[in-house]
Structure formats: structure tokens, C-alpha cells
């Protein structure tokens, strides 16, 4: 079996096209969703992520406010900016680009965001609501994985999903979303990590396998069963002298070998990545609707 490649760029483009229409409809009612972006320091990858997020806003007609602060910014200055955005009615979503510089307390900053504007879904109120199945902002990468599965026609209900990785931003929230007693959940979920004994024994039982590890070739062909649907969240740089920049991006899965056994698989790049920014846009529009009393 050779897998169908799930085109994350296309799925993201489809969702953005729908969202663009929705934003245009909101504009006619005088509602313009707004995203406040905060970036501290000069990490090049963070700058390019933030630029991509602001471009997505522009493309969709979402107002974005760019706050790029120097690395020496103090915790108090950052908290004051978050407070200002919490109070600003033009801002429906606040995005603090991570990681923050080492001298900052990341949790204090994220927990300082008004949960009504927590479009990244990292605030404990958002996480708690998600766990108990209340409506809230779902964290963007796992939410993107969920949409990739749904829009690719993968049956989640009753499936055994094995997630490799238990981070707060991917593995844990995704496990919680998929185990919900709901039409987009009802899966049986196994979460694996570095202390898992015999990882392959678990991954071979997966109907749906999600890799969110951060290490190339963690999932090889002998670790999956025929017909598995594979979502590769990992983004890793590997040296490649044939590329101008000296490296290429790969996921956590041995794509070429695993695609010969899987029924569906996401590539890296072009799989989960485009979905993450798209779900941030979805959450920002949702927040604007809630603020206007129409969500
Ligand atoms: P993370 O916080 O470093 O977590 C990695 C997880 O993988 C941990 O739970 C770790 O276990 C587990 N792990 C590491 N090596 C393992 C191994 N050999 N066997 C089994 N489990 C192992 O990473 P993250 O933030 O979740 O990100 C994971 C990957 O996804 C990274 O490559 C990241 O760049 C990528 N990512 C992509 C997007 C996107 O939009 N495409 C968004 C977020 C993240 P322990 O808990 O035991 O340490």
C-alpha cells in the first residue's frame, strides 16, 4: 500500500478561504477581529513565525498589532503590555511568541492573558475547559491535527490513536481532545514518551499514529501496521549540502519508508505546519464573534 499524502497546505487554504468570507461578513456588521502579537528578542525563527502570522491576518482581513520588543525587556514591561492588550477592545486575541528570553517567567506571562483572548489556548482556564469538554479556545497545533484528520475523512471514533510525545502544547492537549465524549473524539488514546517501555509495541497497534517528538526517524516502517494514518508534527533540521541554506526540514517519521505501509500520511513541511497558523486565525475570529455576542 502506498499512502495518500495529506496536503496540509491545501486543507489550510480551504479553511482560510471559508474564514475570509466569514471575516468579510463580520466587516459588514462593523466587526474587525484583531490579533495582538508580542515577540521579545531577536530569535530569527520566532521573527519568521510572527511575520507569517501577521501575513495570514492581512490576507484574511484581520487587524494585527505588531509588538517586537528588545531582548532586555523586563518582565514588568511585558506584563504591562499584556495588561494593555487585555483592556483594548480592538484586540480579540493575544499571541505571545514562545520561547521568551531566559530571564522571563513564561507561565506568569501566559497566565496573565485574559482567558477570553487566549487564542493560543495555553491558559489554565482554557486547558481546564478543554479537559472537561466545555467550549473554549483549543490550542492551535493539536486543533490543526484534529482538523487534518476530520477533513481527510479519517474515522476517529473507536480508533486507537497512539501519540508519541506528551508536551503541554501538542501531545497532552491532543490526547484530551481525541478522548472527549463527542463526535470529533471517542477515540481510545495511548500517549508514549521517553519512559515508555517498548515504544514499537505501542505504535504497531495504532490505527492513527501522531508523532510529536522533535527527533528525525523516531518512527520507522517496522514500527507501524499496514493501513495506519500517520500525522507527523515534528519539525527537525538535518544537514543537507545540496540546499542553499545548508539544511532541510524533516519530521519525526521516516516518511519514504512509512508511506509504503500507511493509508494516509502528512509530509514535513506542508503537513501540520500550515494548519497551526490557520487555527490561530480561526480562534481569533471566534473570539471576535464571542466579544460581539454572536459566537
Ligand atoms: P517537546 O516539548 O520537546 O516534547 C517532546 C516529547 O517527545 C516529550 O514528551 C518527550 O518525552 C518525547 N520524546 C522525545 N524523544 C522520545 C523518544 N525517543 N521516544 C519517545 N518519546 C520521546 O516537543 P514539542 O514542543 O511537543 O514539539 C515536538 C515536535 O513538534 C518538535 O519537532 C516541534 O518543532 C514540532 N512542533 C511543530 C509544530 C507545527 O506547527 N508544525 C508545532 C509545535 C511543535 P518526555 O516527556 O519523556 O521528555
Describe the overall structure.
It is a single chain. Helix content is 39%, strand content 16%. It is an alpha/beta fold. It folds into two domains: 30-115, Rossmann fold; 140-274, Rossmann fold, CATH 3.40.50.720. The chain has a six-stranded parallel beta sheet with strand order 1-11-8-7-5-6. Strands 3-2-4 form a three-stranded parallel beta sheet, with helices on both faces. Helix 2 (44-60) links the parallel strand 2 and strand 3. Helix 2 crosses helix 10 (273-291) and helix 6 (140-151) crosses helix 7 (171-179). The longest helix has 21 residues, at 8-28. The structure holds NADP nicotinamide-adenine-dinucleotide phosphate (NAP). NADP nicotinamide-adenine-dinucleotide phosphate (NAP) binds next to helix 10. The site of NADP nicotinamide-adenine-dinucleotide phosphate has 26 residues, from helix 10.
CATH class (first level) name of the largest domain: Alpha Beta
Helix content: 25-40%
The total domain count is 2
Strand order of the largest sheet: 1-11-8-7-5-6
Describe the biggest sheet?
A: 6 strands, parallel
In DSSP terms, counting alpha (H) and pi (I) runs of 4 or more, how many helices? 10
Rounded Rg: 19 Å
CATH superfamily caption of the largest domain: NAD(P)-binding Rossmann-like Domain
Output the helix-strand order.
EHEHEHEHHHEHEHEEEEHEH
Unreliable sequence segments: none
According to CATH, what is the topology of the largest domain? Rossmann fold
CATH architecture of the largest domain: 3-Layer(aba) Sandwich
Structural class: alpha/beta
- Whole-number mean pLDDT: 97
Amino acid at each position: 500500500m502506498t499512502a495518500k499524502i495529506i496536503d496540509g497546505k491545501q486543507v489550510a487554504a480551504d479553511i482560510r478561504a471559508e474564514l475570509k468570507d466569514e471575516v468579510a461578513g463580520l466587516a459588514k456588521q462593523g466587526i474587525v477581529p484583531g490579533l495582538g502579537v508580542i515577540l521579545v528578542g531577536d530569535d530569527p525563527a520566532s521573527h519568521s513565525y510572527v511575520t507569517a502570522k501577521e501575513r495570514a491576518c492581512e490576507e484574511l482581513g484581520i487587524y494585527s498589532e505588531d509588538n517586537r520588543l528588545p531582548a532586555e525587556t523586563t518582565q514588568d514591561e511585558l506584563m504591562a503590555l499584556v495588561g494593555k492588550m487585555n483592556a483594548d477592545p480592538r484586540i480579540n486575541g493575544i499571541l505571545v511568541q514562545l520561547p521568551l528570553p531566559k530571564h522571563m517567567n513564561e507561565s506568569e506571562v501566559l497566565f496573565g492573558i485574559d482567558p477570553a483572548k487566549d487564542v493560543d489556548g495555553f491558559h489554565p482556564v482554557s486547558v481546564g475547559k478543554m479537559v472537561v469538554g466545555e467550549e473554549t479556545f483549543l490550542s492551535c497545533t493539536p486543533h490543526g491535527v484534529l482538523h487534518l484528520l476530520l477533513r481527510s475523512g479519517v474515522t476517529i471514533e473507536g480508533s486507537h490513536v497512539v501519540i508519541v510525545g506528551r508536551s503541554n502544547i501538542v501531545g497532552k492537549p491532543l490526547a484530551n481532545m481525541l478522548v472527549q465524549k463527542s463526535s470529533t473524539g471517542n477515540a481510545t488514546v495511548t500517549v508514549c514518551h521517553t519512559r515508555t517501555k517498548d515504544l514499537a509495541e505501542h505504535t504497531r497497534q495504532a490505527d492513527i499514529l501522531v508523532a510529536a517528538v522533535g527527533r528525525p526517524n523516531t518512527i520507522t516502517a517496522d514500527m507501524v501496521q499496514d493501513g495506519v494514518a500517520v500525522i507527523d508534527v515534528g519539525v527537525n533540521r538535518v544537514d543537507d549540502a545540496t540546499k542553499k541554506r545548508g539544511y532541510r526540514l524533516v519530521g519525526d517519521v521516516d516518511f519514504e519508508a512509512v508511506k509504503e505501509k500507511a493509508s494516509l500520511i502528512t509530509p514535513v513541511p506542508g503537513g501540520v505546519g500550515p494548519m497551526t497558523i490557520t487555527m490561530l486565525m480561526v480562534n481569533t475570529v471566534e473570539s471576535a464573534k464571542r466579544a460581539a455576542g454572536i459566537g
